[in-house]
Design brief:
106 residues, S-adenosyl-L-methionine, mainly beta, tRNA binding, EC 2.1.1.216, two-stranded antiparallel ribbon, Trm1
């Protein structure tokens, strides 16, 4: 609803994970959420995996004054069978696939 949660630091301590975020009220930045969200296709035999983003943020060309364009992502998954070993693929997600650390903050 017009907000962006940006991770600034993540820590793995003992048996839990802690994630620190900054929340911004920015409808324009909230549109990038789909390009930072993905699903994963993982083989049950050889454990190879393929990450499929849910959206893309197309960069505007510098020659023409355009606004940022957002669209659904192209399919990168290999289909129902693993291209490495021919095994079955399982679907996992969705999950956040963007950066987990902000180098300026750390």
């Amino acid at each position: 609803y017009g907000r962006e949660a940006r991770p600034v630091l993540s820590c793995s301590i003992d048996f839990y994970i802690r994630l620190f975020v900054r929340v911004f009220d920015s409808p324009a930045r909230a549109k990038y959420h789909a390009s930072k969200t993905a699903v994963v296709h993982q083989c049950v035999q050889c454990e190879s995996f393929f990450v499929q983003p849910l959206g893309e943020a197309a960069a505007p060309s510098e020659d023409v004054k355009e606004s940022q364009k957002f669209r659904t992502a192209r399919v990168v998954a290999p289909g129902g069978d693993c291209p490495e070993c021919g095994g079955r693929l399982k679907l996992g997600g969705p999950f956040y696939s963007g950066p987990l650390h902000d180098s300026d903050f750390v």
